Structure to design on (596 residues):
């Protein structure tokens, strides 16, 4: 039976390789549950049993590093080092956001204290980076957070998180491509719509077709497909030029500095500074995509910590300096909300500088778009390896060592949305998925450090569950009280106290069940606990409509999971078992319950 299953798998792989672009149903749904309508009907009847199995099932480090990775037939090329990762990290994070978000945060929320807001949000992002770093060193695979969550929180949680973040990657990729057109138009002394095609017969918001965004996306896709090392070099060149523009803004801007503009320093008080830091946190997102490059890094234990942490430190310092420069050039109440740096240079008689700022933003958006395409393709590749998406998407091209199929599919999705959809609509679609996953990863890290299946006593496991629930509830409470209004400080303080004493209890009453092999997040359990609290707290500043969109997206994912993903992954897990892969004790318990 085992030999028969292995032969079937090999036959499917070989058929896929020979056919190239000609796919059949077996390439999309090769699992046993989809061989016939009768098989599918039987699978649907077993939905409850299978759901219990998959909710309780957890993957293992060994499975993610070997069995799951082997589903791609070929290996990705190990061509990246710490130097590449630093520039990829800077390029992924430092886009045009700082040129836009700084204006609103300064004028409406924080005043000159916006530099403190950037520092606070930067430190918050750095906490998430440290949690991601430990996982990515231990599990250097293409799935990034999806793989980490599969190992510690199980298939079901990993799928919901990954589905939401993939949707956000597509939306962000489309919006960056549309923004690229806008900044390119500025450089050419044109309005953005001059480069778009107006089709009056289409609905408003979808009637300004953007061929430039599509062309740029396709060029970036080609670069990402041909070579990861080549993409890294291209990114390094553009990012170095982008940093040069940042240095220009700092040096030239400081020649026009006036210390009197720093008074009053915090006109909106501490609440304004914190509200601004919640907004500016989104200027730091993108680093998680770098963790999907684990399979292409020569020395993960050394290169990943240096690359991830080093790039984030550079970004934090740069953002704080840029914010300080802007506030020294102009009184905070004169800062323009939409184009703060451009207007600031115009105000001091340097109108020509707007072209350099636009040029820098254009290069920044190019590297963000490249990092976005690379990351979402690798996420999708690993998801397909687990059968949660069609397995043919997991194939790695033998010649280039890159996931060509997944890259092309994700780019096509980006292009379709970018071609039709206006920036206003795309901006409103950005959900809370990023913060949701940023909260789950440190939660998974606490589980990893304090619980080992089959070794941790039931009493300690139950304590850990209680502590984690209290950490989550106290963090949610702080975010809710903050969102309610200005006179809820007492509620925030009480929730913060619960969080503090819960984390202290975790620290004092439980011993770590597992130590990191190569590199570990410091200050356990305080650092990941603080990361959870901060990310959940920031969610409290997001509008209710975003939560509705997140709920709708999650509901769609649940429907897909119950109808397709659940049965595909169930069959895939059985296939791995038949190959002799060891499973965790919790999976054995799940199978026992299913049989009963």
């Amino acid at each position: 039976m085992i030999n028969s299953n292995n032969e079937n798998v090999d036959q499917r792989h070989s058929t896929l390789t020979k056919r190239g672009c000609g796919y059949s149903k077996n390439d999309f749904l090769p699992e046993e549950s989809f061989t016939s309508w009768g098989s599918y009907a039987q699978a649907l009847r077993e939905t409850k049993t299978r759901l219990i199995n998959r909710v309780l099932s957890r993957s293992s480090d060994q499975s993610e590093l070997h069995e799951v990775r082997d589903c791609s037939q070929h290996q990705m090329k190990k061509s990246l080092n710490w130097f590449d990762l630093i520039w990829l990290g800077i390029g992924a994070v430092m886009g045009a956001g700082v040129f836009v978000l700084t204006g609103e945060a300064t004028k409406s929320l924080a005043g000159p204290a916006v530099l403190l807001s950037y520092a606070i949000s930067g430190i918050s992002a750095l906490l998430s980076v440290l949690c991601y770093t430990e996982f990515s060193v231990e599990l250097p695979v293409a799935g990034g957070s999806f793989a980490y969550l599969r190992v510690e929180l199980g298939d079901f949680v990993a799928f919901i998180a990954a589905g939401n973040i993939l949707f956000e990657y597509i939306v962000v990729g489309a919006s960056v491509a549309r923004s690229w057109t806008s900044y390119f138009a500025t450089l050419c002394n044109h309005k953005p719509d001059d480069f778009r095609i107006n089709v009056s017969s289409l609905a408003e918001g979808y009637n300004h077709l953007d061929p430039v965004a599509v062309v740029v996306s396709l060029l970036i896709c080609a670069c990402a497909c041909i070579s990861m090392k080549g993409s890294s070099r291209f990114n390094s060149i553009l990012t170095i030029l982008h940093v040069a523009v940042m240095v220009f803004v700092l040096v030239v801007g400081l020649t026009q500095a006036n210390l009197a503009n720093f008074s009053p320093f915090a006109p909106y008080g501490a609440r304004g500074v914190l509200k601004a830091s919640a907004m500016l946190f989104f200027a730091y997102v993108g680093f998680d995509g770098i963790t999907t490059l684990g399979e292409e890094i020569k020395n993960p234990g050394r290169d990943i910590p240096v690359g991830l942490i080093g790039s984030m430190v550079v970004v934090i310092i740069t953002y704080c300096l840029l914010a300080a420069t802007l506030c020294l050039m102009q009184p905070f109440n004169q800062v323009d909300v939409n184009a703060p740096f451009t207007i600031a240079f115009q105000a001091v008689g340097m109108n020509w500088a707007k072209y350099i700022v636009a040029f820098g933003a254009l290069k920044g958006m190019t590297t963000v778009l490249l990092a976005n395409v690379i990351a979402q393709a690798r996420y999708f590749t690993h998801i397909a390896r687990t059968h949660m998406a069609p397995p043919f998407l997991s194939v790695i091209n033998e010649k280039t060592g890159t996931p060509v199929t997944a890259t092309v599919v994700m780019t096509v999705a980006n292009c379709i949305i970018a071609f039709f959809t206006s920036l206003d609509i795309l901006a409103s679609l950005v959900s809370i998925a990023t913060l949701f996953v940023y909260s789950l990863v440190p939660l998974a890290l606490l589980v990893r450090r304090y619980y080992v299946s089959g070794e941790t006593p039931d009493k300690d496991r139950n304590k850990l569950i209680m502590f984690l629930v209290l950490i989550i509830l106290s963090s949610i409470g702080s975010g809710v009280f903050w969102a309610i209004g200005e006179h809820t400080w007492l509620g925030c303080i009480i929730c913060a106290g619960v969080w503090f004493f819960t984390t202290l209890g975790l620290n004092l009453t439980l011993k770590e069940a597992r130590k990191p092999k190569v590199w570990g997040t410091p200050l356990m359990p305080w650092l990941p606990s603080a990361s959870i609290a901060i990310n959940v707290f920031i969610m409290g500043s997001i509008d209710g409509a975003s939560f509705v969109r997140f709920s709708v997206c999650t509901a769609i994912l649940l429907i897909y999971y119950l109808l397709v993903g659940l049965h595909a992954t169930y069959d895939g897990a059985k296939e791995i078992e038949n190959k002799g892969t060891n499973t965790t004790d919790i999976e054995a318990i799940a199978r026992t319950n299913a049989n009963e």
User: Anything to note?
Assistant: The mean pLDDT is 84. The two ends are 24 Å apart (CA to CA). The first strand starts at residue 197 and ends at 198. The first helix runs from residue 2 to 19.
